[in-house]
Write a structure and sequence with these properties.
2 copies of one chain form a homodimer.
Chain A lengths: L5 E5 L4 H10 L17 E4 L2 E8 L1 H9 L5 E5 H7 L4 E6 L5 E8 L11 E6 L2 H9 L4 E6 L15 E6 L3 H5 L2 E10 L1 E6 H6 L1 H15 L1
């Protein structure tokens, strides 16, 4: 008679690798989930009253941190960027591997600022500021939602901080990685308050732990 | 001998309507622009040394406001949300019509807050806060990047502020519009500093004005 759990999963990159792992943990979305023409935002699960919601990666963290979803899957880049106190990330799912890196033009960054003040384009303002602060550098972050690689060539920022997988996108845009901020992989995340009050969450964490090692 | 202009256009909704208008104003992207498999972020134009960049709507405003692109097309929702001093929006392109509205569950908003303090999910934190402030209400905005319609049902927020076109997505999610914040249409935007120093921009503004009325 309990309220169904809501499980938030991200669109895009991680999802294809996450689905087999979810299946091994007993979380299988209804057929409509795979219908590319569907406008639905929320899906039933097979053999369970759990609901799946498919949202953007940053929004997975927001839904789970506020307890609107109790559990979810998201990259460690997003977990670290938000640094929400109510988010607990107990399982490294060992999928969706990439890295968050600083990159600049192959010929060197064209800085408008000084040595101690740089302008950086990124989708990750918090991680970017923290990375440069640790080196005693004040970074002014221009927040972009995509296409960071365009920024140096157009003079928007001397450097970018972005996810790098094969490095091909950087190369195509004449950029080289200069330092790595974070090794990224997908994590199972749960809402801390929900974990204390709902025993189903501990069961799901155990099922995902087993699914990763199987 | 002058540096090529960069023209920023948004992915998605507005683009299909914008292309014929751009063509009437003499801005025609190279064939690769229409290749859906292309990974390119920047495109040449036919009969012009202008470059086109195709980025997310919010990023169009960021590139133009910083002068990294000198001209662009974006919805008035984005222009109003950012309220950048360096953005000038001289031409209403009369395409991409929709509205920014407040919506709540058909049965009424389930508010966790009080009458004078509401929680609202939106991609538009600034416009949302300003709308409610004008009514003497303090709105706590939960910033989402998409799927706002899920928020009331999952208890993330009592209300949402989102773009509404046909109203079908709201209806599918059991929501009704309660007030309209802004009538939205696409605008030609230019960087103010660039407009003062580059005569080509006045020519483009005139060409788009003529294209709209033709």
């Amino acid at each position: 008679m309990s309220v169904p759990l809501t499980f938030a999963i991200p669109k895009g990159r991680i999802l294809d690798e996450a689905l087999p792992l979810m299946a091994r943990a007993g979380v299988v979305p209804e057929a409509e989930f795979h219908d590319k023409g569907s406008r639905a935002l929320s899906f039933a699960c097979v053999d369970s009253d759990m609901r799946l919601i498919r949202v953007r990666a940053f929004d997975v963290a927001t839904f789970v941190a506020h307890g609107a979803a109790q559990i979810g899957i998201v990259g460690s880049d997003v977990v670290e960027e938000f640094d929400y106190a109510d988010l607990y990330a107990p399982v490294d799912l060992a999928i969706g591997h990439c890295r968050l890196s600083v990159a600049e033009p192959a010929g060197g960054a064209q800085d408008t600022g000084s040595e101690s003040h740089l302008r950086v384009a990124s989708k990750y303002p918090s991680l970017t500021r923290r990375h440069f602060e640790a080196q005693g550098i004040q970074a002014e972050v221009v927040k972009l939602n995509g296409a960071m690689e365009l920024a140096p060539g157009l003079g928007l920022a001397g450097r970018i901080v972005d996810l790098v997988s094969t490095g091909r996108t950087l190369k195509d845009n004449g950029l080289i990685e200069t330092s790595e901020i974070l090794q990224v992989s997908a994590r199972l995340i749960v809402n801390r308050a929900a974990l204390k009050t709902d025993a189903r969450l501990a069961g799901l964490i155990a099922a995902f732990r087993a699914a990763v090692t199987s």
